[in-house]
Amino acid sequence: MLISIEYANKAKEIFERHAGYEVKVASCENTLGTACIFLKQFEKAEEHLNRSIDLLQKHNEEKLILVVRHNLGLLYATQNLSTLAIRHLSEVTEKNPAHFKALFLQAREHYKLRETNIAKELIEKGLAVCMELGNEEYVYHFNILRSLNEDEAIKLLEEEVKKSISYFKKQGLWDFVEEYAEVLAVRFRKLNEHEKVSDYFDVCYKAKQKLLSKGALK
User: Which of the residues 5, 191, 203, 214 has an alpha carbon 20 to 30 A from that of 62?
Assistant: First the structure.
């Protein structure tokens, strides 16, 4: 991630020296903003992404603006600023109804706000898009979110998460293994099922070790 920031900064410096490269500068700002999200440098991320939007709007680059708006949505969703996240994500999903990543993020933010009917509609749309595109990864994401949104019994949620964790392990997506194992651990803790809590926190710990070994700790 730090290498990405270094290259993006160097590229930005080069493009800024010449007229007519504002869109390239905007792309560098977007890259820097996205990297800052994952480094949890949220204030810097917001500055980079807003600068990117400003430059792209001057050149009427509508498709690229949607890319940056998605990242702004991710930025605010990461901080649980659901209303702000939805403001940007809804613009993406309205203009590009097949943008399954934005559909997922928007649905999850509505779920956080307990707007379950809106979340349900977005989940159904997202699943339909992913099935059509054959995107297996996001089918798992949407199915877990659907189970949470419908407040299914813990056994049903556990079945869904276990299937997903198995898939994410095979794909080396350890951040999602950690995330969803923690969801179950927290749920089981509320039910005082301490053995299950221990099991799933152990899964979290092992996933975090995998991320550390890859130098990819969130």
Answer: 5
